[in-house]
Design a protein that fits this description.
seven-stranded mixed sheet, alpha/beta, five-stranded mixed barrel, binds adenosine-5'-triphosphate, 812 residues, disordered N terminus, disordered C terminus, 45% helix, 24 strands, binds magnesium ion, elongated
Amino acid sequence: MSTSEEIVDLDPSVPADPTEVVPGELPILPLRETVLFPNSFMPLAVAREASVRLIDEAMSGSKMIGVFTQRDASVDDPQKDDLYGIGTASLVHKMFKLPDGSLRLIVQGLSRLTLEEIVQAQPYLRGRVSPALEVLDEGHRLEIDALQRNIKASFQQVVSLSPLLSDDLQTLAANIVEPGRLADFIASSLTTIAAPVKQEALEALDVRARLDALNRLLIKELEVLELGSKIQSQVQSEVGRNQREYFLREQLKAIQKELGEGDEQAKEIEELGQKIEAAGMPEAVRKEARRELDRLARMPVAAAEYTVSRTYMDWLVALPWQKRTEEIIDLPRTKDVLDEDHSGLEKAKDRILEYLAVRKLNPEVKGPILCFVGPPGVGKTSLARSVARSLGRKFVRVSLGGMRDEAEIRGHRRTYIGALPGQVIQGLRRAESRNPVFILDEIDKLGADFRGDPASALLEVLDPEQNATFRDHYLDVPFDLSEVLFITTANVLDPVPHALRDRMEVLEIPGYTEEEKLAIARDHLLEKQITNHGMTRAQLVITDEAIAAVIRGYTREAGVRNLEREISALCRKAARRRAEGDEASLMITPAVVAEMLGAPTFLDEEIEERTKDPGVAIGLAWTPAGGDVLFVEASRMQGAATLTLTGQLGDVMKESARAALSWFRAHAAAYGADPDFFKNAEIHVHVPSGAIPKDGPSAGVTIATVLASEITRRPVRGDIAMTGEVTLSGRVLPVGGIKEKVLAARRVGIREVILPRQNEKNVKEDLSEELRRDMTIHYVQTVDEVLLLALLPVPRTRTDRKTSRRVQATLQ
Ligand SMILES: Nc1ncnc2c1ncn2[C@@H]1O[C@H](COP(=O)(O)OP(=O)(O)OP(=O)(O)O)[C@@H](O)[C@H]1O
Ligand SMILES: [Mg+2]
């Protein structure tokens, strides 16, 4: 029997109330997997022998049969228990015989029946039946009306969404007034509902229950259909897009082929493939590169991704995975190279040679990272370059100054637009060697902000335990940095994070004396600058006196950078002369220097001018630029016992000023001053030299001296400079940076300094014999000793002051 259903117009010959004409006994036609409802037509296929016989006989009689659905469709010879208890009385309308003996018929459901019992089993079933009457509970009329309206609306939607239901059903349903019939019509129309569910609707004699069940069924059906149509439209748009892309790609390929570009891409891919094999990458990296290359080969050239992937491939193949320079650690040779490039710097050179000796004896040992610390222009960067040269290694330099973003060290992930590897990997690519000398310049100027801390990335780079598998964010494959010789430089160590400092072996390069500078200029700077300007040393001679004049009158620095700049200026002017036709060789003397560079600034004159009145003393300070002289000033006004301190002083410096004042108040009488001088005074101490912040206790003796000078009106000697911390009891304690401070004094032409006694050992260790011979150094333990050395008698006139200074000088 068939499961397909179809709606045919109702036959007008059907009796108004079919129950009246249904006899008490009927032939029973078992149905498989479908349910026939009253008031509906259904085509059926009949093949079972018993059923064919039944129809045959019915057609010759009243054409009325009872149709009952089988509980289990697989039963071939069903008995009463195999059939549902409620079925439908129906008329057989049309019948065709097919050649195989089976039948096709159209039946019309009339009314519900209850199967009471089977009265005949052969040749087909006959049963005693009774009408199953519908119950329409008028008490629930409102609810029934509402349900009916809902059902109609839902059914309209179901029909419009379902591709299997004809739109005519909407009109037909709309015209049915009677609720029970509406339910039957809809239940029989829904093709997707299983037979047992339909049977439930047939058995629901209470119309309200039937409507209610159907309502639920429709809502569920609607949800399923809506979901289905959503999926459908998604699938459609997906398919649409894929097809479109595919189509465009094909077109693009055709165009590229036409333009000969496709070949180019293929060539490019092949070349990259060869480069990958030639690069000597570690196996894991090679695999990754191959994978990326496959991706690249499948990408259209015009895609934005292609460029990204292409650039990445370029980076991968360009890195020196295997390339290295042969390292020869030949200590005498290294020493020669270092000496050749740099004068002096004996301590630093010795340390470098020791460091290299250890590496030579045990190449496995991971030594600390060298860090050159010193003021600007003392040759830190160039010394590192020289180390590279002496070892036959490549040299790269990266400046860390102002770096605030971790990504600058470690790169951006490839997902960023315009991403690149960090400076470390970039440096290695430039070096074209996996074992260069890599200088990380200005490590003290490293910053940090919300984008992550570059110092921690740097730590990973420098840590021998970790850097064999350094992973740049952009490359995303490990690169072995363990053969790189890292050297860092800094002006000061304080700002360098501790974790970094721990990894480094510090080599201090403190600054040069005038004589050392002269030697550097004579042996290196002149040669370099003269050849740079296209001349020979025969054509341009710069005398030692001229260089000394430049050092003294035109530069004031710990290093030699300005000196080099001034020498370059001299060469430039000489070159111009030659270019303008003066072919004669030129000798630059101090007089020519003055002519070429303008009038020098002579510091001794400036110093004399500044220190002529009481209340000014020369202090020595340590600065990142290598030590400097400070003119500390004090002045007393009418006021109420206040001490004002200016000049961007730090807390420690302010405290040391207070300590100095307290000490002098306690000892004022000994210096012939009124012990109550502070009562009605405001004392102002100023430490000039711009807006540079200053701190530390080492100005203590200088402040004590200016206070004593201001109160007693005794001037301070202008040819002596001092440093030292002062305690309340007037003791002088040792301070740091002795070499830089002495050099600073020497630089401005001051040859006498007052230092704490306990710093004597630093002088012996750090200052060259030459410098010590050149300077007069007074070691003191108390402020009294300082004042004895530094204060002049009260002058009566200007000349008198000069005389007293001369007298004092001869006394020394
Ligand atoms: N002892 C020296 N012998 C020869 N040349 C020197 C010496 N010291 C410095 N120089 C030269 O001085 C110039 C400046 O040196 P360099 O740039 O290395 O200084 P730096 O210490 O790195 O300074 P900064 O801290 O500003 O980076 C270079 O031309 C260098 O060759
Ligand atoms: Mg440098």
